[in-house]
Amino acid sequence: MVKSAKDWINIDYLELFCQTNQMVVGCKAGDEEEEVWISALGPHPSHLTADEIQNILKQSASFELRNLLADDDQFEDTYIVTRNELQQRLRRLLN
């Protein structure tokens, strides 16, 4: 079964993406600017439900990617990608 473009950005795929690339991915959505960060360890803040996280991911037009330096847990590079760019990265990883 082939996934549609809207299905590529989800918690499981993003956690794998973060683990593979030593990154964290963040995004904001909604009038209240709800924010979620996804890492290889899971979503943050951890009090959000899976549905709340998925809603934030669906509403986000852009995503912040941060490369994590393994030796001191500092962020080396931070950049913004569009929803389409992130979907393309996820497709490349999973195909």
Structural overview:
This protein has a five-stranded antiparallel sheet. It has 95 residues and is α+β, with helices and mostly antiparallel strands. The protein has helices spanning 11-21, 50-59, 83-94; strands at 23-29, 34-39, 42-44, 62-68, 75-82. The chain is globular, with a radius of gyration of 13 Å.
Question: Which tags fit this structure?
Answer:
single chain, 95 residues, 5-stranded antiparallel β-sheet, 3 helices, globular
- Mean of pLDDT: 86
Described by strand count, sense and barrel closure, the largest sheet is: 5 strands, antiparallel
- Roughly what percent helix? 25-40%
Order of helices and strands: HEEEHEEH
Q: Main sheet: which strands, in order across?
A: 3-2-1-4-5
Number of helical stretches of at least 4 residues: 3
SS class: alpha+beta
List low-pLDDT spans. 1-5
Which band does the percent of strand residues land in?
Answer: 25-35%
N- to C-terminal separation?
12 Å
Taking all Cα atoms into account, the compactness measure Rg is 13 Å
Overall geometric form:
globular
Number of separate strands: 5
